[in-house]
Design goal:
Layout: H1 2-13, E1 19-21, H2 24-31, H3 35-47, E2 51-54, E3 64-67, H4 72-84, H5 88-93, H6 100-112, E4 124-129, H7 144-153, E5 158-161, E6 166-169, E7 172-178, E8 181-186, H8 200-212, H9 217-220, E9 224-231, E10 234-239, H10 246-249, E11 259-263, E12 266-270, E13 275-280, E14 284-289, E15 302-307, E16 321-322, H11 324-328, E17 338-344, E18 347-353, H12 364-377, E19 391-393, H13 413-431, H14 436-441, H15 444-447, E20 449-453, H16 457-472, E21 477-481, H17 490-493, E22 498-504, H18 510-520, H19 522-527, H20 530-543, H21 549-565, E23 569-582
Parallel strand pairs: 4-15, 20-21, 20-22
Antiparallel strand pairs: 1-3, 2-3, 5-6, 7-8, 8-10, 9-10, 11-12, 13-14, 14-15, 16-23, 17-23, 18-22, 18-23, 19-23
Length: about 600
């Protein structure tokens, strides 16, 4: 592939029949190979008549190169060959960067025609999406879409049946509790996707890896003291806290059992779920039904999630599921028939205030002032129109969205000015307190408020709005939008004073959702002080002393209210989930995360 990458690099770097200076180091870096290999490639290209190459003569003189034949056709032909071999990632490397999106859209449209597909008799669920998928290792999953996908790639010891309102065995066939100890027996004949047997030692290895991971998900499982293997089919969980919460915890995404397989210095994560991950790149995530799955085989043979990014306007749909913002940008006459499914998601979008970065915000009084100021600012007027998704004012994770017509808090200008004045004085006093040396080292950057969020339309709109309003009120402010996984890193979040994020709760397992937020939310963890973490852990212990679900729910709500009172957290709004199902599918209900169940989806007869 280095040879073809060299041709693609030279096409973009050189002008036909014009001599150009080019260092060997630049070529080596572009190809990602050794200098020796780069020299061999140059000799081959020169021999084939693509280039003329003259080594640099004298100190400081770079080699001179001339492109003597157009490379467009040969690269296009090779891209087509790679496409025919299903090597989309490599093919796109040969397409000029400015043409890649158009090439991808054209390819997807051809590929998605079921009559022209490689396997016309297979039933493939096709989904265009606005971004590529991130890490699908359940230990490091951070977003709802990735969490949904991984739930089909990796099996858990237990699963929750929301209809029966009870736990059922998945990999486990039997389990029981004795105080702080849980005993599990695995099913016989379990297989990983590579056909290797799945045994108790594999389960232990997964939880050891999960607990050792430098990721917020590991905090959810800190209640597990150790996992002990009794024999190939039996294991024991020894708990150090929250023992009653273990069954719910074992249904959570990071508890999907994995196996690490190292091949040619590359580590692959293998699962045993109903689907196998057969391809994942920037443009396509492909899942294929696992024929040796221990449960009921899905009806569809595969799932393809295509990243079409901002090219939705040029994309003629041949898909089965479409998110609303993609339909908004597509001409009516280009759309197939879709049935729109809508529901208000449990959970909300919210603001967190970091007590750790800015000295002033370490005090509760200052955080409450900032929180009051953000309340007074309301939300931007156009947020209701953003990408076709409706939002409704939230007072908490589980508050009930209002009935239409929808309205959101508006700017309270006078209140905002008064609160901003008080906050400016607080910041000024804080930076001028103490001895002379402290005043001299108090940096301007410390008083500048930093807003952080990730690329969702409403989040970006809120970050821009807050930044503009705070600057207008004399509070110097910047904002930053970071992609996952950069957004979720502690080193990123600890540099922010205001974090705009969101959480989606499961309707079936509220305990998992609440604990997942209080202990598994990296942004919340970054904003907590040590004292607040101790408070959180103590409160969760109190919650799980309650056998009654209603009593636990009341205590979770009380914890959420206390976060508001401590000036850490401010609910913003609920989002109405929308998913458009083509008439190729039999009707499906939306899950709490806004997706559908890949295991039970079926196509209508053709």
């Amino acid at each position: 592939m280095h040879y073809w990458k060299a041709l693609a690099f030279l096409r973009s770097r050189l002008i036909l029949n014009q001599v150009t200076q080019l260092s060997l180091d630049e070529l080596t870096q572009a190809l990602g190979c050794t200098r020796r290999n780069a020299q061999l490639i140059i000799k081959k290209l020169e021999k084939e008549g693509w280039i003329e190459w003259q080594a640099g003569i004298g100190r400081g003189n770079l080699p001179r190169i001339k492109l003597i034949k157009s490379l467009h056709k040969v690269l296009q032909d090779q891209a087509d060959v790679l496409i025919s071999e299903n090597k989309l990632d490599q093919a796109l490397l040969l397409i000029e960067e400015t043409q890649r999106d158009a090439f991808l859209v054209s390819y997807i449209e051809r590929y998605q025609s079921k009559e022209e597909g490689e396997n016309p008799n297979q039933d493939i669920l096709q989904i265009p999406f606005y971004r590529g998928t991130h890490c699908l290792d359940p230990v490091y999953v951070a977003r709802r879409t990735e969490s949904h996908i991984t739930s089909y790639l990796y099996s858990n010891l237990l699963r929750f049946d929301s209809i029966k309102n009870t736990y059922e065995g998945d990999l486990a066939i039997d389990w029981n509790r004795d105080g702080n100890t849980w005993f599990f027996t695995l099913r016989k004949g379990l297989k990983f996707h590579d056909a290797s047997p799945l045994k108790a030692q594999d389960v232990k290895a997964h939880f050891d890896r999960l607990k050792a991971a430098e990721h917020q998900n590991s905090q959810l499982f800190s209640c597990i003291k150790k996992v002990e293997v009794r024999d190939p089919l039996r294991l024991v969980f020894h708990m150090q806290s929250l023992s009653g919460h273990l069954p719910a915890l074992l249904t959570n995404t990071p508890a999907g059992i994995t196996k690490e397989v190292t091949d040619d210095e590359k580590t692959n994560i293998i699962g045993s779920g109903s689907f196998v991950l057969t391809e994942q790149n920037n443009w396509l995530t492909r899942l294929t039904a696992f024929e040796q799955y221990h449960g009921l085989r899905p009806w569809v043979d595969g799932i393809e999630i295509w990243n079409i990014g901002d090219k939705a306007k040029e994309f003629k749909l041949h898909c089965d599921l479409v998110h609303p913002h993609q339909l908004v940008e597509i001409e009516e006459n280009q759309r197939p028939e879709f049935e729109q499914k809508v529901q208000w998601e449990k959970g909300c979008e919210y603001v967190l205030i970091n007590a750790n970065r800015n000295r002033c915000l370490g005090g509760e009084e200052s955080r409450i002032l900032l929180q009051s100021l953000l309340k007074a600012l309301g939300v931007p007027k156009d947020i209701l129109k953003n990408k076709g998704e409706l939002v409704s004012f939230a007072t908490g994770m589980l508050s009930i969205p209002q009935a239409p017509p929808y309205s959101l808090p508006k700017l309270q200008e006078e209140t905002a000015k008064q609160v901003a004045k008080a906050l400016r004085e607080k910041i000024f006093l804080n930076h001028n307190a103490g001895d002379e040396s402290r005043r001299e080292t108090a940096s301007q950057a410390d008083s500048r408020l930093q807003i952080l969020t990730y690329p969702l339309p409403q989040h970006i709109a809120m970050a821009q709005y807050y930044c503009e309003q705070l600057n207008n009120l004399g509070l110097v402010c910047d904002y930053k939008v970071e992609e996952f996984p950069i957004f979720s890193l502690n080193e990123t979040q600890r540099k922010a004073d205001i974090i705009i994020s969101g959480e989606v709760f499961s309707e079936a397992l509220m305990d998992v959702s609440w604990v997942g937020w209080f202990k598994g939310c990296s942004a919340l963890e970054a904003c907590f002080t040590s004292a607040q973490r101790r408070w959180r852990d103590h409160q969760l212990e109190q919650v799980f002393q309650q056998e009654n679900e209603a009593a636990r729910s009341a205590l979770f709500n009380k914890m959420e209210t206390e976060l508001v009172e401590k000036g850490i957290y401010l609910p913003l709004f609920h989002v109405q989930q929308q998913l458009n199902q083509a008439d190729t599918l039999n009707p499906m209900e939306l899950l709490a995360n806004g997706w559908i169940d890949f295991n039970t989806v079926t196509f209508k007869g053709r």
